[in-house]
Amino acid sequence: MSAGQIAALIAAGAFVLLVLLLAIPLIKLGRTLDEATIAIRRAHENTDPLLHGANDTITHVNTQLQRVDGITANAQAVTGNVSALSSVFTATLGGPLVKTAALSYGITKAIRARRRARTIEAGRHARRKGARR
Questions:
Q1: pLDDT tens track for 73-109
Q2: Is residue 111 part of a domain?
């Protein structure tokens, strides 16, 4: 055997060793890809019930929102009616009621002023009588 053949055998052995060392990570990578494929398949199978549940929930929420929308519309109508009723009350009874209150206040004030004037006049009259004696 010549030196070239021995060198070729050593090179071939090193190449086989290199291939064996690279085969181990490739086998592990293949197993990892298989596990990832299985996990993706399971996730895909489990999404169907999840999506159906989400769809049912969204349908229920939409129904509740329609009810709330109706309640809001009714509350808005009630608010408009109360505002109109308040305006009618103010227009029909508010003016006369304010005038009546002002009149009664004025009459009360006039009566008090008259009573004070009489009290003061009575006091003056009593002083005059006392001064004459």
A1: 999 999 999 998 888 877 777 777 778 888 999 999 9
A2: no
The continuous run of DSSP H or E covering 27 comes out as helix 3-89
Query: Computed over its alpha carbons, how large is the radius of gyration of the chain?
Result: 53
- CA gap 19, 47 in Å, rounded: 42
Residue 99 lies in a domain: no
pTM, entire model: 0.40
d(CA 62, CA 77): 23
Residue type, 59: T
- Total of domains in the chain: 1
- Residues spanned by the domain of 8: 1-93
Residue 133 lies in a domain: no
DSSP-derived letter for residue 123 is: H
What is the C-alpha separation between 63 and 57, in angstroms, rounded?
10
- DSSP character for 91? I
Residues shown for the chain: 133
